[in-house]
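User: I'm putting together a small comparison set for a docking exercise, and I want a reference complex before I start. The sequence is below, and the ligand is NDP. Could you produce the 3D structure with the ligand included, as structure tokens?
Assistant: Of course. I'll restate your input first, then give the structure tokens for the complex.
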Amino acid sequence: TAPDRYVVIGNPIAHSKSPEIHARFAAQTGQRLVYDRLLAPVDGFSQAVRDFIREGGKGANVTVPFKLDAHALATELTPRAKAAGAVNTLKFDADAILGDNTDGVGMVTDIVTNAGVAMRGKRVLLLGAGGAARGVILPILDEQPSELVIANRTESKAAELASLFAGHGDIAASNFEMLQGQFDIVINATSASLADDLPPIPASTIGAFAYDMMYGKEPTVFMHFASTHGAAVRDGLGMLVEQAAEAFFVWRGVRPDTAPVYAELRAAL
Ligand code: NDP
């Protein structure tokens, strides 16, 4: 029989590292599967998914700009996908399209397990209120920080997220300029780094550890700012590998070892 087929769907998609990551996971765990890139037209996401299902596809990862479309298309949602309001992992089963979101748990695993930075009892600052920020809120609150503050350029969006998750822990909203006190962990979930821009937060907010969801060749301006003010810093490459491992587990029921795959990707940057 032919190996099971998976894809990562996005637009653009050529840059995606997911096929390399999943090929390594498959080789390591002895799972027989193929994993390709699928470029969908910006208005053609659901058609692309339906075509792939008809061809026998078993699952998909979903990236920019389709995570909301995937959320709408799913016939069943996991609690973490519901909370995130977005879907990055689809699993096709008979007539059902299961939607999951592994981004948040991927980031928390990268910080808590890989970087060894516990969140329990800590003050955590989350910069940004877009899709990436929303997806990590519940997994952060599950770690029981003493407080989570969401700060965003457009403060009303931070306030919306804070009220949405108010029942799950101590959570507050702010703009960048008015932030008070130091935070043990500062997470940049804005897309500012893409434009070499820095959210204008007071230097006094920077505590022991800072994380930028962005990854690439160089340290971002945010990572430079945070390390200048004494923080240990980490980029989002580990989040990328961990969200993939969690998706692999959803599809295959097997947990790959992420450390060697992370090391290979890091060396290739
Ligand atoms: P969205 O477009 O949904 O949200 C963008 C956010 O960034 C908003 O809060 C926006 O503020 C803020 N922002 C944009 N530009 C600036 C700026 N110049 N200064 C300050 N704030 C700014 O993007 P996503 O949430 O989907 O993605 C955010 C980042 O996370 C991206 O860089 C993406 O690459 C990264 N990411 C990494 C992953 C990984 O696996 N490592 C996974 C998912 C995302 P406002 O509301 O005021 O417009």
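The chain has a mean pLDDT of 97. The longest strand covers residues 4-10.
User: Thanks, that's exactly what I needed.
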